[in-house]
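Collaborator request, handled under Task 6.
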Amino acid sequence: MSAARSCRPPRALAGLFVWHPRNTGARQIPCQFVHLHHVASNRLITFQYFNFLKRMYVTQRNKDLSQRAKPKSDSVVSPFHELQQLDQEKKVINKISSVSPVHQSWSEMSSRKELREIKSAAETEDSVIPVEAESKEDRQWKEMKLQLHDLPGVLARLSKIKLTALVVSTASAGFAMAPVPFELTCFLLASLGTGLASCAANSINQFFEVPFDSNMNRTKNRPLVRGQISPLLAVCFAASCGIPGIALLTLGVNPLTGALGAFNIFLYTCCYTPLKRMSIANTWVGAVVGAIPPIMGWTAATGSLDAGALLLGGILYSWQFPHFNALSWGLREDYSRGGYCMMSVTHPGLCRRVALRHCLALIGLSAVAPVLNITTWTFPVISLPINLYISYLGFRFYRDADRSSSRKLFFCSLWHLPMLLLVMFTCKKSVMEKEDKGDLPGGTHEMAMEIRLP
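Structure tokens returned to the collaborator:
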């Protein structure tokens, strides 16, 4: 059959259109094209068939690729089948018996260990019920019976005896730094009155903060929280401390010192205590409360409010910020749980900055002391190393902002204040020097002259 006869009109196939030219150029078409046309017309070639041919060509030409293909992984066994297999294995292991009683197999030891664990678990389950019952009974609020010999310790914790001792020591430092001769009776009355006023303020503070202290780990064991004493007894104790304390300061020392003591109780109980749950300004108010006791000691000795008293109050005021901010940094969880608004909780950056600023302020306040004619010029020089060290720890606390740096700063503040006051007392200008220069306050010059007379 010739090529011209084999050319037919165009015929539409399923998925394929073939054009058959009728001109003379059809004789020049290769025989392969004509053969492809016959195959297409007989077998009805489609696009799917071409794809099949393509896959066969790839597999035949690229045998290496097909050989490199990884076999299909086995299907993942469901966890239920795995549990069944483990149960079967355990059953088989339990059926195995040891050959000799001396040499025990590892499987038998493991099975015995499992049995022991099951028995112990059963015993613990049996013992959980009474423990839970006891814990529920312990959680219930019940009044504790107070023995008479436990009452002094409970009242000491109610009055925060350690904080009261710190307040009395700072007041004693203010009395000792006053530029007047030392008088023992006045010193004892001032110390006792200041201590009683501090006990009253701390007791009233705990009375107001019972529902908040119960949420904090640091304060949940206080007497009023645990119910060791009644609120009525706490109020009576505060009144029995506050009224005689203010009376001693007013009548036994001088009215100015008594007024400062009464004002400090009011500031601590009526201003600082409610502000702790309202604003971070409570830290500044609390610093003022801590700065008043050395001023009270100064006024108890001199009877007047001088620049030296304000300087001592300023030192105590600045010292409290690195001390308290470092302490509160490690108690942020407790303060947030108790609902207290502290800088370390709401403004952590400000907490660290304020601590560093007041560490540096201690250096400046120490340098002002000889200018006010309270100490000699050796005091700023001797106190400079300890002030620089606490400032360095304040900078570490500002930079690192972690518990380690805050703890170091807090423990440094515990020994920094007594050492600074001790150095200040050793560098104090004597009464004789101030008498010669005429720097004694009014009324003290005649007292010094009376003491010097035989």
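The cover message to the collaborator said: "The chain has a mean pLDDT of 76. The first strand starts at residue 11 and ends at 13. Please let us know whether this matches your experimental observations."
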